[in-house]
Automatic annotation (TrEMBL):
This is XrtA system polysaccharide chain length determinant. It comes from Alteromonas oceani. It comes from the Bacteria. The keyword Transmembrane applies. InterPro entries: Bact_polysacc_biosynth/exp, LPS_length_determ_N, XrtA_polysacc_chain. Residues 171-282, 328-362 form a coiled coil.
Amino acid sequence: MQELQQTIEMVLDYIRGIWLKKRYIMLCSWLICPIGFGYVAMMPDVYKSEAVVFVDTRSMLQPLLSGLAIQTNPQQEIAMMAQTLLSRSNIEIIARESDLDITVNTADGYAKLINALSDNIKLDRTGRNNIYNISYSNKSPELAKRVVQETLDLFVEGSLGNNRRDTDTASRFLDEQISEYETRLIEAEQRLADFQRRYNDILPVSGSFYSTLQGATGNLESTQLQIRELQQQVTSLKSQMSSGRATDGFDVRQGDNTPVITTRYDDRIKSLEEKIDQLKLRFTDKHPDVIEAKNLLASLEKSRQDELKAYFSETSEDGDDTNLSPLATELKLEVSRLEGQIASLRVRESDYEAKIQELRNKIDLVPQIEAESTALNRDYGITKQKYEELLRRKEAAELSRRADVSSEELQFRIIEPPLVPDTPTGPKRLVYYTGILVLGFGMGIALAFAISQIRPVLVRGRQLTSLTSFPVLGAVTHLNLKQIQRRNRMRVFLFILSSGAIVTMYAILLAAEVAHVNLVERFL
């Protein structure tokens, strides 16, 4: 409780000290407030113009052209344009288009103008949607509107123009690269054609040199195998011809390897065997039909064997073709045909052997030629692949350009166009007047408090005790107390008069500003 009382007494001592130095409050208030009020009153009105634009980045062509055309990210494009809109080059364009550059004649003045525009033009994004607010304040309402309009036009045209310029730049670059790769492709094709003409006798049509050699060797071995097979067939036929002559009842059937001699009884024997098999399915071996069929089969087989013995028993004493049977004639013709095939295969064998020998003679040149061929084909393949890829990119870029012409990816919708402001938006004189009033009295109070601490005035005995550590035994009053009280009342009256004048001045300016605003709103 005692500490609280001491704190209260200390605060009261500070207030008494400030009150005793109240002349500094009067001095500061008259030095700051009238000058500040006059400065704020003389400040020109500022008009603010603003525009609100919505950037629609949705396009129906985006899902349709996915994977077919080159697509950019419209969100990134509009964000980049918003960040670079207030660059120095764009600010200079805005100054030229709004005729602000003709208001200055020096380089320093032009630099200050550009800096002022850069500081005063505001581009803010509202919320998550692509809604942008462009604003600018100036003493001239028409100029404020014109600057906002030029900024809005630059924002819209810059976004669309950048997209078109990027497309044109990409198209020119692709055209240059296509022309260059086309020239390189023609040169590579010419080199490859010259190389193939130079080594057409060594380079295989398909595959490698070694595969060609291996294929020729395989063909030679296959031909030689066929020759041996045909020779075996000729030998077999000649052995049959030398064993006897054929009768009119025989025929020669050419099989896979050796001819088989058939008689006129073979078909009857085969059909009778089939009939016996069918009878056995229904009857036993003791059935009369089965017994009769078996007897007939035995008779036919005996007749066949007799004819075969008669055939092999015939001989030709002088080898004259006129004495040959029809079967022997057929065998001789078959031998002649086989010998003809052997002769043709011999020719093919010789051709394969010559080709293999020629390839083996060139085998030392093959590694170098194939390495050079591989390098040429690789260069040609890479150049052709790049050329075709550039053509595809060119088609994709052309499709993108046509899509941009038919439907822009960025649609700018002006929500609020820039207008000429009718009422000033600044300066905030009410706020400034109040701030100057508070500043004037606040500076005076602070100065009075500082001086009261530097040169304190003792009003109580306890203050003297705290300063000197000596007890105060008593206090005496001033002999001329009435004169002192009269002087103090005069000081209080002057302080109240001074502060009242400042407050009255503040009230008059406040009322005038409110009346001015109401008057403007009434006429509008």
